[in-house]
Amino acid sequence: MRLNFVSSAIGIILKYISVMVLVPCISALIYKDYNSLIPFITASLVSFLGGLFLSRKQESIDSLNAIKKSEALFTVALSWIAFSFISAIPYLFYNLSPLDALFEATSGITTTGATILTHYDYPKSMFLWRSLSQWLGGMGIIVLFVAILPQFRVAGRQMFYAEAPGPTEEKVTPRIRHTATALWGVYIFLTALQIVFYAAAGMPFFDAICNSFSTLAAGGFSTNQYSIMGYNSTAIIWITIVFMFLAGANFVLQYRVLVQRKISVLFKNEEFRAYLLITLILSLLIAASLYFEGIYSKSVAFREGLFQTISIMSTTGFASVDYAKWIIVAKIILFIAMFTGACAGSAAGGPKIVRLLYIFKYLKAEIIKILHPNAVLPIKIDKTIVAEDVGKQILSFIIFYVLIFACSVFVVSILEKNIIIGLTGSITTLGNIGPGFGELGPMGSFAILHPITKLIFIITMLVGRLELIPFLAMLHPDFWRVKN
Question: Rounded to 5 degrees, what are φ and ψ at 423?
């Protein structure tokens, strides 16, 4: 581990983050809220000076391109932690405690959407920052810097895959920088498209921008205290359904659809077909339970079931109703959806469907081998054999995911003296989903939690967003062998 390489890379990233933090100043100037300039200018200065300090002995571009995998993992992990602290600074100026500010900031950049806010009487600049931080985190801050910074033209490959959500190294072009640029191009296009649709449906333009940022990021922070339900519009609900679903679909596939102009590209992908099928099955099960209990009509039951299923599976966390008040059957189905996630290469958190597909096929193969011990049964996804090392990584990921979840449930349940908070709070933060059930439901707040619980959830949000690997690597002694 060469700390000078890590320091230089983080220094560069912090200097560019300092520019991004200034974006809400535009809102402050437009709405003549000049007091809101101070929080973001302060955060920008802290970020820039921190970056200047860390990169004072900046390595050459050629040296940075020689960065090793362990250094890339460490850089990515520290970048997200540093971004959390920088993102928290503006919240301090709005009377949030340091811990609550860090919680809200981490929830934002990890696109979790779990809020500690108990009221929404804040300036527009703060709401823009909440949504913008989610939007930046949704595609990934490292992916953004790989796309725009020449310093990471080669080193970015290691960092790109350390941050990328999924078990495989998927790209759309041979050059990783071009891949990052293409992904951000799709991301920006879909965000702009949703803003137009929202505005056309009657949503205030500022709200349309913020909610679109949060939707495509699979984040869930809204400018409305009652989330999407607060707009009381069927059109807005359906628009949100469509774009939440796209946020949970692989952006590499969506890029290919836009380039090749063939929607069939999506349906040739096994993971996307499974994503669509699981979404429909869970939505119909919820709709049936709500309809036969006489809660909604057929059309409303299907719409609300579909909205909340996609919201949970894509880990967006928006709400069109207070589903925490639904019957137990519907809530159990939603709880199951919390353990699926959406597609690899999307903005969604959670285990990802491609991993669940592999586990299902692995177990099926093991059952067959009981009857046919000599059978050779390679596991294939999209007609391609999954490499043995990738398969082992998937199995390890699932084991550690469940282990971290179980540890969080155990500790939080004891701290809060509430198993519902322990169960749903742990899975919604580890899976970057946001709201859970009970007091942590879509109309609730995480402000009620014990300070230690908030710290635990801050850690699980970061670990979940970076998909465990960078943090698990740090547990090995060899990771910490420092070199000059």
Answer: -70, -55
Comparing C-alpha atoms, which of 180, 179, 185, 206 is closest to residue 195?
206
Helix, strand, coil fractions of the chain, as percent rounded to 5: 70, 0, 30
Is residue 428 within a helix (H) or strand (E), and if so which, with residue range? helix 419-430
Q: Tell me the DSSP string of 92-158.
A: HTTT--HHHHHHHHHHHHTT------S---S-HHHHHHHHHHHHHHHH-HHHHHHHH-GGGTTHHHH
Digit-coded pLDDT (tens) for 148-167: 555 555 454 555 555 555 55
Strand 380-381 to strand 384-385: parallel, antiparallel, or no bridges (unpaired)? antiparallel
Is it the case that residue 64 has pLDDT exceeding 70? Answer: no
Query: What three-state secondary structure class fits 85?
Result: helix
* Distance of alpha carbon 440 from alpha carbon 420, whole angstroms: 9
Please count the CA atoms within 13 angstroms of the CA of 74 that sit on its side-chain side: 22
Beta-carbon contacts of residue 329 (< 8 Å; ≥ 6 apart): 289
**DSSP per residue, 218-265:** T----SSTTGGGGG--HHHHHHHHHHHHHHTS-HHHHHHHHHHT-THH
Lowest mean pLDDT among 13-17, 90-94, 147-151: 147-151
